[in-house]
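Please review the protein record below. Tell me whether the encoded fold seems credible here:
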Amino acid sequence: MEFLTVLLPIFGIFALGYIGQKKIGFDTKTISTMALYLMSPVLVFRTFYTTKFDFDYLYLTFYTFALCFILIIIVYIVAFIQKYSRVETCGMILASSFMNNGNYGTPVILLLFGATGLESAIILMVIQQLVMCTVGVYYAAKGSPEGNGVRSAIRAVQRMPAIYGAFLGGCFQFLNVPLGNSVLEAIDLVANAAIPTVMIVLGMQLAKISIKNLAKGKVSFSLIIKLVISPIIAYLFTLFLPVDNMVKQIMIITAAMPTAANTTMYALQFNTEPEFVSSATLISTSLSLATLPIIFMIVL
């Protein structure tokens, strides 16, 4: 029952965006651009400024990037067999390779492990944000019909302000640069608004999807990779990484989280299969109501 109390607010925010788009109608790309270029960099800056780094970061950074790239390789294999186009392949990567361990995963870990587990969950969330604003943006831009492949994708990553927000936040923490209360309050206001804005955009995007046109085959492949294969790979990593048992449990559980809501924002911004990515995000989030309790029973 407590698990549902974590999820209900998430689905409530999705529903808010959905209803708003149906009843009023918004330019979702403009709102997405605002969240991507104005709000997310502030959120990333705050995360890197306030989170204390330790040695576990090295292991968890290796794990997070390695898991992401293994899932991407699996998507490429599926895409080769299914003869997907570049745009379809990049859309599949966005839908299958990035987990929602922020607004979804972190509360779940807090519920299961308390404050002790929350520290590891925050570390994974910070690293995942870095993965999203580099690897995620790269594939979103690479799959854009308006782009020219790898070159434009690299330029898109270089133009992403969240990367510089992460670098600046990390430098400020390392150099112990103090920020006044008024500055921190302003940062908190913008950072706290970033995640719900992204979730509302996802709800808006879902209002534009036609179930009849849903690519059921691609969605099925994406769900299997994200909800089944990903935690299995995470378990294999736990067999040799020198971290304690609780961290290993958290690694597996966060790997089983549904698709990150940020992928919809990237897909919408670069026009990389936004309908498919947003539908995969919602369906994986819905199915996680059934899959995550199974993961809990196995891991805990």
